[in-house]
């Protein structure tokens, strides 16, 4: 039986405490009569190996079509059902094969060749996993799901497929049954990291084509390339039950079944957890705030995983008052994000130190970010910039600043965020912000806004995916939303994109980021994190990069 390193650490602390206490008790002394020993969790497996999990929200349980909360809070759990070509659980440069035997990258960084393992078989049918299935499922993800464009955007022909100009990606080629190639339009050193996203999961063409508008493909007991296969799926109840894939090579999964229950209110999930109806549940919002309190009885069962999903606020430079660079500078320098994180968000999120992902994000995860402080308040600088703006420091001359902020979302309560920002800006500059707290806005309302929110889920440990799509003039997401064109920024981005050496590349992206900061066009706020309640009898449950359930075949339930 293998212990997770966290368990070894905890065991070591317990031994130290035991020996320390023994040294302090006089010989012959009896322990206090009212002292209670904490019951130790059994290390023996339970007879019933079933994990009951309520991740969040309502899911479609399809790698191609999950969006928003579907993807970030639930579809990653499909890693129990689906696997990807390369290992998502390794470092930046040490990517290893998962469904492949080997891969090669051309000297110019434009061509990736993968040689698949030949012992892998899909659940249900037992058919071999082939390069044809990979081509089909990847193209289906882009054609059907649409949203995964940012994962595929550097493959030749991806944009044409996305825009429905063609039926296939020119840069995705089947060489033979167990070999395929990916051709890039520009060097993308972090491509293998991007390819670990859930939309890149490999499923069988035959089974996916069985799905119709009236009937989900999982209802026929879908199986993909992974250690589990679907036993049953109830779309009305949003209940997916997975069982072992009998065709998967190697040791069988330790769990007999994995039960995934979506579309439950947060209160229902919590009650189910307290009644032992669920072993793992997602928590957020007011419930999370309560459990974060140290004296809450569930506090010790709360676990969190930092994510690559960040929230930033974008100042629209084509509208007053933010068409004035000095007004943008004054506005941003008025904000104290440290205070907002601590007092408003109550430490539930991490400060976004860089535009590329934050303290646990792509840049800082593997590079020193001590010199990237993120947004810091500068009252004197704010007042000086305001005085130098065309408004000459007079709040009465500033055009209305309108912000639409949705309450309680998967990225925190943005209405609370903006109420705090509005208060700080008013205290420093005397400028008022008009807030409309509304879950959804009309196009007409959005057109009146001076500020927009940008929530971005980064799929790779590289700033390219975080910056180029939104901030380059030709980026696929700079399509009228930002309306920000800057030739110098474009040139810096293109320079960084062309560098293949990781360290040199990161330094170039730092230059891009510094220039963006100097433009005062974006308010970096915070990085998301995911919180779950996990029962102490659940062993080896770890979420990793892209919220994938790491090694689902090694999760097991202890006696309790």
From TrEMBL:
Signal peptide range in chain numbering: 1-29
Residue span, Solute-binding protein family domain: 95-475
This protein's record includes keyword Acetylation: no
Gene Ontology biological process terms from the UniProt entry: peptide transport
Keyword Nucleotidyltransferase: no
Keyword field: Signal
InterPro entries: Peptide/Ni-bd, SBP_5, SBP_5_dom
Full protein name: ABC transporter substrate-binding protein
